[in-house]
Specification:
Helix content is 42%, strand content 16%. By secondary structure, it is of the alpha/beta class.
Length: 518
């Protein structure tokens, strides 16, 4: 087939991926409608789940916290010391590989394993005698009954422990920790979008939305309590709450069907959850390459690509990963050698001409641009729902970080779809680890402020720090021993906020940082 005829046919086939601005405005309107239904407790695509997180970090958080991150075969335990300000927090962490026998064992095995990992990190850092609040990023479907109560709905990601489904995972973990006589208690349980927003808000006070563009997609945002009709909460405590939209499920009821291509339908039909997460399947990293793969196979059958033959390897599901899509879109070599290498050598397509390379690049650009536009429509709906003139969106995820063109399309079309708001895009620093600790720290700060409303947070901490230093000095003089501060190469840590400020225990000393990440 001649190059001209090939490109004419290709242009016709790619028209289905071209969403006009009018389409995007309509998608935004439909997203807003589904959001309202979810907030009112009506049946719809978006669950709009309350997170019970009623405040964001403000940069004044101080003290030491434990953070846990369990979302697959790896379990991270972190100890994070926040000094006032964003540049001086200290992190030490350890990663554990969760054994298969634990992933498929009993409830007791799982929570004893988690508690043992926590105990190892606490012991290695000599913190056994100190009370430490804990933030837990638990990336499995849960029904939250409070900031520190979560009922597991079902397992994913290879975990098969029936005895935990229907149980409160926070209660189970606290019991396992107490059995080991460690003085750590779960202050907050959250998902990664909440951690993303809180991590960004610690450094940017304008942050109001946290969004993940990775293997999947999801977002959370700040909502007024009065708009959350599914809960009866005291507005005196806080008039706002973070809402977990679960907007990857947008379109499950059919409102995106007119914008889906035959390749979207194929991806959905052949997925593990047909009819679910429709919006996610049109934009996220797990599915972008698969949409392109089905299109390539179809175009090859029509004689447009690869002399009609894609080879055996390319017929395998999910073999055309989104990392290839990104690499192909960004190839600027003179003869598209990078594209040829991926298609011919990595993916074993027998015949790849330069014409094929140009055509595949156009396809990948079209799918990527549509993903960016759809992502922008969802984000614009959240921005309009918040209704302010200026805000920051905190982004995380492998697709966002690894696909520059996707980021560009997202930014471009957010400005078109939300023109009345000045939007700044920022990135999260360790959303699931540092973010979890910040949720716990914020909860402790708010509790402290409610119990001592007259004294400012900063003055309160300065007073407590002064009292603690005097107490240590008096104790050292009585025992003829140097104080903790005198023995440390770093200044003594501030007293723990909230539950860590126990009158029967000392605040955690400043920790020597190992495996540091900032």
């Amino acid at each position: 087939m001649g190059a001209y005829k090939c490109y004419i046919q290709l242009d016709e086939l790619l028209k289905d991926f071209d969403l006009k601005d009018s389409h995007l405005h309509e998608i935004k309107r439909r997203m807003l409608n589904e959001m309202e239904k979810g907030l009112e407790g009506k049946a719809g695509d978006l669950r709009m789940l309350p997170t019970y997180v009623r405040g964001l970090p403000d940069g004044s958080e101080q003290g030491r916290y434990v953070a846990l991150d369990l979302g697959g075969t790896h379990f991270r335990v972190l100890i994070i010391n926040f000094n006032e300000g964003t540049q001086s927090d200290e992190v030490t962490h350890k990663v554990f590989q969760v054994p298969k026998k634990v992933m498929e064992g009993t409830s007791e095995m799982l929570f004893d394993y988690l508690a043992e990992c926590i105990a190892i990190v606490i012991s290695e850092n000599h913190l056994e005698d100190y009370e430490l609040p804990l933030g837990f990023t638990f990336s499995f479907p849960c029904k939250l009954n409070g900031l520190s109560s979560a009922i597991l709905l079902n397992w994913t990601k290879g975990f098969k422990i029936p005895g935990v489904v229907g149980e409160d995972v926070v209660k189970k973990l606290n019991e396992a920790i107490e059995a080991r006589e460690n003085h750590v208690r779960v202050e907050a349980i959250l998902n990664d979008t909440v951690g993303c927003l809180c991590s960004g808000a610690y450094e940017d006070p304008d942050a109001q939305i946290g969004v993940i563009y990775g293997t999947g997609t999801n977002a959370c945002y700040i909502e007024k309590i009065e708009n959350v009709k599914t809960l009866m909460l005291d507005p005196e405590e806080s008039d706002k709450m973070l809402i977990n939209t679960e907007f990857g499920a947008f379109g499950n009821g059919g409102c995106l069907d007119e914008y889906r291509t035959m390749y979207d339908m194929l991806v959905d039909r052949e997925s593990l959850n047909p009819g679910k997460q429709v919006y996610e399947k049109m934009i996220s990293g797990m599915y972008m390459g698969e949409i392109c793969r089905y299109a390539c196979i179809d175009f090859a059958k029509q004689g447009i690509f690869f002399q009609g033959n894609v080879g055996k390897k390319f017929l395998q599901k999910y073999v055309f990963e989104t990392k290839y899509v990104s690499a192909i879109v960004h190839d600027q070599t003179p003869n598209l050698e990078r594209i040829h290498y991926h298609l011919h050598y990595d993916l074993d397509i027998p015949h790849v001409s330069r014409q094929d390379c140009v055509a595949v690049q156009q396809l990948c650009k079209a799918v990527s641009k549509r993903a960016g536009k759809l992502a922008a429509a969802g984000l614009a709906a959240l921005i309009q729902k918040i209704g302010c003139e200026k805000l920051a969106v905190v982004c995380d995820g492998s697709l966002y970080h690894g696909h520059e063109k996707f980021r560009g399309y997202l930014n471009e079309y957010v400005s078109i779809l939300a023109p009345s708001c000045t939007v700044k895009f920022t990135t999260a620093k360790d959303a699931s680890g540092r973010g979890a600790a910040l949720v716990a720290a914020t909860s402790c700060r708010l509790k402290s402020q409610r119990s001592s409303p007259v004294m400012s947070r900063k003055n309160s901490e300065m007073k407590l720090a002064s009292m603690d230093a005097a107490k240590q000095a008096n104790s050292a003089a009585a025992n003829n021993k140097p104080s903790v501060a005198a023995n440390s190469s770093q200044p003594a840590a501030s007293p723990q906020p909230g539950p860590a400020s126990s009158p029967t225990r000392e605040p955690a000393p400043t920790l020597t940082v190992t495996n540091s990440t900032k």
